[in-house]
Amino acid sequence: MANYSSPAEEVVENKLGDLPLGENSIEDVENLEPATSNALQASTQSSDQSSSIKLLSAIEELPPIPGQETEVGNDSLLSDGSMQVDLEMVIQAVYLHFPLIRAAQASRGIAAGDTQSARGAFDHKLASGSENQALGFYENYRQELYVKRDTYWGGEVFGGYRIGRGNFEPWYLERQTNAGGEFKSGVVVPLAQNRWIDANRAELWRAQLERRRVEPAIQAEIIASILDAKVAYWMWIAAAENRTVVDNLLDFALERNSALKRQVETGDRAEIELVDNQRLIVSRESKLIEANRKLQQSSIKLALYLRSADGAPLIPDEDWMPGGFPDTISLIDHSVDEDIVVAQQNRPETRELDLQRRQLNVDLQQAENLCLPEVNGALIASQDVGQATSFKKDKSEFELTAAMFVDVPLERNKALGKIRATRSKIAQVTAKRQYTADKISTEVRYTRTALRAAYERVGKIKESADLAVRMELAEQKAFELGASTLLNVNLREQQAADAAAELVAARFDYFVALAEYQASLGFSDSLVSENKDQEAAEEIEIPALPNMN
What we know:
Helix content: 55-70%
Structural class: alpha+beta
Mean pLDDT: 78
Distance between the termini: 40 Å
Number of strands: 6
Strand order of the largest sheet: 1-2-3-4-5-6
Low-confidence stretches: 1-81, 526-539
Number of helices: 13
Largest sheet: 6 strands, antiparallel
């Protein structure tokens, strides 16, 4: 499920608090005012204030009341007809077209084929034979045709027709039939070994259980793939906002450069300040190149999950950006014990191990079955038809034969060895089942803790970013009064931008933590119910077998 060291190496790259702004900063800019850029052209004062307004817009939202749900848009088309990629679109693309999920779903066909193959043990079989003794003192001809079938209750039924004509040895007169041949049918019933279970039924039951066992494996792949897709999606959003922050900083420097040129020409500013601002422009242009690279790479990675109708990877265009992170975030409002109960019920790992243990129980029953003596009862009926071949008419009467066959294993090493090995395998699966249940509980606690910390961190960073913007505004006023320098203004501007970028990084951490929390509960959004319904539809019934110890 969740990766508890880091979601991905790229996520580590985007931990912005410890890295320079130009390489790894991000900003939430969905609330930027369109008129801001016009105000920047008026003077250095308006330029500095506008930069503060842009950065402040990314941090003015406060955390909502706990219990509110995070809202994600579901519309894929904007009013102008262009595409908008939201998280639901990515999830649906993963579910419908992601190759790893399709590969996992192909195991359904494999399991269904194995089940059909196992049912072949109970197919009707046509058997025939022809024996002709054409030369010799005794010349005779024998033909036979039978249909037989192994039954689901362990025995065998058969019925057929044979005809024997010619001159037979006196000691083989049972091979001779009346002129019309002989009809024969019979049944063989196991009384001890193979009564409750045999090789045919054991193979069929294992195949039926395997057909059910692939569903949890498919569900596990869906959960893991959707988790990876969510991380890639939020990384794409974060990279776009990171590029916007760097782009805004470059715009600030460019617009300030025009104002500084006028002030240098009028003698209000020293020329060295204009040179310093030009240095900032070049530096931020290089940082913008790096931010564009990260956005392009995140788009390419998202294309692994976002796919077209024919399943081909679809690299999202920048115009498809939905507008940044959702504004609302929330805390979970139920207890950890409730989450653990839900996770234990939903997580596919435990269900897969339970089905594997049921398969091993079938193997154990079959092994214990081999320890029993093989006692089979048979009842055979036959009737010759047509003209009698002997004056005694000994073939014309209806015949009914009852028989008993006993085969007792002595050392029983094969059966005892299988019992010992199978019980050890069951012990292994039981231990794995216990560990898996403990691991699920731990993962739920872990992801809940991460989600709460990410939520609280967003609130603190919003407060910190607000303070950084206030410091920037104060420094701008001092600069306007001649009590500060461009260097100090740039530092405060950079600090405010870094704070906004750190806020976006915190939001990214929150939504990744939310995705990992949902995965720890065994949720893959709306797709879970569909797979559970499919699994329920394929429920099979295996008779309870008696204890053969």
